């Protein structure tokens, strides 16, 4: 296969007397061998999009292509994709070897010896060769997820479609499996679409990230691009932890005037021509303690070891800053902070669109 293309894909569901638009006219090109992460809040349409690509849902309108082939009307089993879900879906009465080999047994003419040999190869690749005789209930969550991956890999599909495959694992194992999965995907070089609601996971894993909200695709790009150049306030807010600080400001000549005495002179007013109010955003790590600047009142200081998270108020707004580990303002202390104009984000107050 050479990539997956979604052309104005739309999926509506009948819910009694109303139509739910789960996926609203998405155009997306997933490159051959790419690891693309589809990320967004709960209910934004990620799973439905993935199910449309898999052929588990019919699209309401639009087309899906695998390479040059239009697969829109093909059924799931005709599409040569392998899915991996959150709830592993292993057969409980079969051991690991049987679970991994089962699909191959059904779908190919391979002999038992050939299947055994491929199961062995895949199990070694995943580091589970010692578990082949065990039943799923005897395995840890991480081991079960490896078996589920093994079942997908052994089929040598044209694409992997993964829906929150790591979300049942504890934090440490999840982060370990992220790295393993990424390495494996790059080794196998199989086009992969990976769904998660976790932006940290998306940033860590994706060659590119596709951010969705409310059934619509917001932005597609590398982790750096969606982080540093978000197309709108939604993407700026969704990507990054702790989240970007955003507040309303009034434009007064070349100055932005906002909550708690916020008064920031701009050297470049070109992007905001014609606006008398805006939404202004500043990432926590772009805020620095400064001798002179904007006064904020400390609420809580969270030491992180290598840095501190400062939760403060700017007038009636809450504001978060990532500051030096040696700085120790106490609750109630007023500190002054500053930031570079280049790190300021400005959004249209009505559409949320980025202005610079
Ligand atoms: P989550 O992360 O919570 O799984 P999601 O982003 O994957 O969310 P979807 O599961 O794709 O979102 O759902 C998108 C919208 O479509 C939601 O409003 C959901 O309620 C609706 N929806 C999904 N499947 C159906 C269905 N079979 N019938 C009716 N509505 C559905």
Automatic annotation (TrEMBL):
Coiled-coil features, chain-numbered ranges: none
Recorded GO CC terms: plasma membrane; transmembrane transporter complex
Single annotated GO MF: ATP binding
Enzyme class: translocase
Keywords from the UniProt entry: ATP-binding, Cell membrane, Membrane, Nucleotide-binding, Translocase, Transport
KW Ubl conjugation (keyword) present: no
Reaction(s) catalysed (UniProt annotation): L-arabinose(out) + ATP + H2O = L-arabinose(in) + ADP + phosphate + H(+); D-xylose(out) + ATP + H2O = D-xylose(in) + ADP + phosphate + H(+)
EC number, as in UniProt: 7.5.2.13
Cross-referenced CDD domains: ABC_MalK_N
Protein topology in the membrane: Peripheral membrane protein
Protein name, UniProt field: ABC-type D-xylose/L-arabinose transporter
């Amino acid at each position: 296969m050479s990539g997956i293309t979604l052309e104005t894909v739309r999926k509506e569901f009948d819910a009694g007397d109303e139509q739910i638009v789960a996926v609203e006219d998405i155009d997306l090109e997933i490159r051959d061998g790419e690891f693309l992460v589809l990320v967004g809040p709960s209910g934004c349409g990620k799973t439905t999009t993935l199910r449309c690509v898999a052929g588990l849902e019919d699209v309401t309108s639009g087309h899906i292509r695998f390479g040059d082939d239009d697969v829109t009307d093909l059924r799931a089993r005709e599409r040569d994709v392998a899915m991996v879900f959150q709830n592993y879906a292993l057969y409980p009465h079969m051991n690991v070897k049987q679970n991994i080999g089962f699909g191959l047994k059904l779908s190919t003419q391979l002999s038992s010896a050939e299947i055994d040999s491929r199961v062995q190869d895949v199990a070694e690749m995943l580091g589970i060769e010692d578990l082949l005789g065990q039943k799923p209930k005897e395995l840890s969550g991480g081991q079960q997820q490896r078996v589920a991956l093994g079942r997908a890999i052994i089929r040598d599909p044209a694409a992997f479609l993964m829906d929150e495959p790591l979300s049942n694992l504890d934090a440490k194992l999840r982060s370990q499996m992220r790295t393993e999965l990424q390495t494996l995907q790059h080794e196998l070089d199989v086009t992969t679409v990976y769904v998660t609601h976790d932006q940290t996971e998306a940033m860590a894993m994706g060659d590119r990230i596709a951010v969705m909200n409310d059934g619509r695709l917001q932005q597609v790009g590398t982790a750096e691009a969606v982080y540093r150049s978000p197309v709108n306030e939604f993407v700026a807010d969704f990507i990054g932890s702790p989240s970007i600080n955003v507040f309303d400001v009034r434009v007064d000549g070349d100055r932005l005037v906002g909550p708690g005495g916020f008064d920031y002179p701009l050297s470049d007013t070109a992007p905001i021509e014609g606006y008398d109010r805006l939404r202004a955003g500043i990432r926590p790590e772009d805020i620095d303690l400064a001798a002179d600047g904007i006064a904020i009142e400390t609420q809580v200081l969270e030491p992180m070891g290598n840095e501190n998270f400062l939760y403060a108020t700017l007038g009636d707004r809450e504001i978060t800053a990532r500051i030096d580990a040696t700085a120790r303002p106490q609750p109630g202390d007023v500190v002054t902070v500053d930031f570079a104009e280049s790190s300021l984000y400005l959004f249209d107050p009505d559409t949320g669109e980025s202005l610079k």
